[in-house]
Amino acid sequence: MGLLAKFATVGGATLFSRVFGFGREMMMASALGVGPVADAFNLAFRFPNLFRRLFAEGAFNAAFIPLFARSLEEDGEGGARDFASEIFSTLFVVLTVLTIAAMIFMPSLVRTIIAPGLGACVDDPSLGGNVLSCAERFEITVLFSRIMFPYLACMSLMAMVSGILNAFHRFFAAAVAPTILNIVLIAVLAYGLWQGADTTRLGFLMSWGVLVAGLAQLATVTVAMRMAGFSVQLRRPCWTKGLRRLLVLAGPAALIGGITQINLFVGQAIASFKPGAVSTLQYADRPYQLPLGMVGVAIAVVLLPELARALKGGRLAEAQHTQNRSLEFALFLTLPAAVALFVIPEPIIRVIYERGAFEPAATGLVASVLGLYALGLPAFVLIKVFSPGYFAREDTRTPMVVTLLSAGANTVLSVLLFWWMEEDGIALATTLAGWLNALLLFHGLWRKGLWAIDRQLMKRASLVLLSSLLMGLLLLYLKDEFGLWMSSGAPLHLQVAALAILIAAAMATYFGLVLATGAVDRTMVTGLLKRRRGKARPAGKP
Length: 542
Hints:
Elements: H1 3-32, H2 36-56, H3 59-104, H4 106-114, H5 116-119, H6 134-148, H7 150-167, H8 172-176, H9 179-195, H10 199-227, H11 241-257, H12 259-271, H13 277-312, H14 316-343, H15 345-353, H16 360-391, H17 397-421, H18 423-447, H19 455-481, H20 492-517, H21 522-529
Helix pairs in contact: 1-9, 1-13, 1-21, 2-6, 2-7, 2-10, 2-12, 2-13, 3-7, 3-11, 3-13, 4-6, 6-10, 7-10, 9-10, 11-17, 12-13, 12-17, 12-18, 13-14, 13-16, 14-16, 14-19, 15-16, 15-20, 16-18, 17-18, 19-20
């Protein structure tokens, strides 16, 4: 299977999951709106979800796959099974202890890490008795966090099993497993709304839904691993050379791979000082995560094994070609998405969320945040492209330092800008930190001579940027022309029709421009529409 076909496999499965995620967020916005229960659920879910993103979406693979592949090659399948069993057993014990401790000390975790704003909350008597008090908001956040925290253990174990599947070039099961979470939560929301449950009851049911989904996801990849003819055994954990090497690589890799989620986690913790701000950030994050997940996760999962094999085989020209074509692929899909999300965020948010408890006033707030997030979208995808250049050479120190600098900058900027721009300040800080991270990662590769940009990449990247900007100008014009159709007072079918027209026109314009100008080879477009098996294309053709 060629490189683009592998990107399409993982990206398609991830897109499938994110589409269901849209459905989940739409139902949640309608049921909970931008309110205290939505804040509590998002705060409680962000912590275990942070670890899911840290480990499951490529970071654990960055450390585990090279070591597992080496064990498989040098010691055979039996040796690889012993190595995998050692890691699985250690993870199981550590995560069990961590989960028990976290559930015991959850009030302190919520007060100091997850939602420090709740600890500083002061009730406003003018709001009346129908609004949850600060103590009630704190209590339900603790309750939801306790229920959902074991999800962290499920996702960490799932990440390891997914790494085994990826090492055997079986990408689909691990990529599609997150869909289970969205399906379960959609079912839970539908049941709760059918039963007429209040918002607090809905949040409680959704928390249990997260835990059930985590167990189902772990079971799914475990079955897929067994179908691949591989298994692991739970045994007494012991300190081994392989485990020590994995920890040395996995810690920095997790930090680097999850910088987007780390920034979002920091942003939500700061946003907890303002009621409703956490939900605003979360609702804006969903449309932004769609292209990031489809392109960024696919590249992170597929690029590392391809690059590692080329480097270990001494095929340096192939490694450079793989890096450049991956960057070309990332820009080809990410730049137009970023421009579109920046130009028309309000119609997108209105169609997705504005109904039920999600009032028109919230649309403008969420749209403003989404527009600022969009400016950082290319940066966070580029991080997924640049990081494997270090991981494949077992260099985690350099990107770890870069990530720490970026995370520090994000924290400082978030605190400063929040008091000036509120939610918009946090979104802007996230975007600026993302670009700082991407630029420093690329500079490190270029300075060490590990990345040589070829002429084809320069030409096509410039033309892709130009095509995206021209598409953006068209969207600006069409947004004014269809303004009445996309206003809050317009019927939903007119809003959907107008947004569909804008998206169709933008896609036709963009793809027409990139094909006409030579910004992309036609084989890339056709490769995204169908999976093609066979030998990799020769250099010069992405």
